[in-house]
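Hi support team,

I submitted a single chain yesterday and got back a structure, but I'm not sure I'm reading the token output correctly. Could someone confirm the output below corresponds to the sequence I sent? I've pasted both exactly as they appear in my results page.

Thanks,
R.
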Amino acid sequence: MSAAKTAPTPVLRIVPVSALHPHEDHDSQRALPLIERLRSAETFTNPVIAAPIDGTADYVVLDGSNRHYCFTELGIPHILVQVVAYHTPWLELGVWNHVVSGLSTDDLIPLIDGLEGVAISADAVEQPLATLVRKDGARQTLVATTSDIRDRRALLREVVHLYQRHGKLHRTAHGDPALAFVDFPDAAFAVLFPHFTPDEIVEAAVTGAYLPPGISRHIVHGRAVKLDYPMSALRDSQQSLDAKNAALQGWIHRKFANRAVRYYAESTYHFDE
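Hi R., thanks for writing in. Yes, this is the structure output for that exact sequence:
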């Protein structure tokens, strides 16, 4: 995507929490602290990214499964989303790979061996579950012994949960593990995942055959961040959805009128997450 092209103004909408369908499992390590923060939060910082599901009034969550999970657990009726059509040049689907520290592949392999349905190969194969890459470059491919998509996704979630429980997981956008190890010098190995298609993401949301957390990477050109929208408006169970959205649009217009919205076309690294 050329930075010379200005991304469209974000489409922001308040929708029922029940209308959102995640395509990935939530991350309990992230979600539990977030629940406590949202319980007393006065503002909602970053909207969930969601795409309409054709033929329905519902949406697939592209980014923000943990936020969606927390709103569900807290019983908050509505949530703020940025709506992005899946088939648009302003949305790209990539993959996050994982870098793991505090755990070696020698420790992980016996744990994986205990999973029924996963085999380990030293050779590259078609449609692997994932590939483990050590710092010395040695690779081991994880292969599912089943072709059933729900079983394959469940096995992939189990593998990720294993090293998430026993080590420390970091996400990286690097496809080359050597570059990832520069950012995380204490890491023992990287986990590379296959790419998914938009249809596979929607299918995962509709059928509940979830991906593990932190694998799909949706790049939204023109993503809305740091909104700090009042949580009271989302918690309110008396005001109608139409009234809430009318208030949201008025709030957005005032932000633009007061020069409180700034557009950055360049790629950025945030050091305050």
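A quick pointer for reading it: The radius of gyration is 20 Å. Let us know if anything else looks off.

Best,
Support desk
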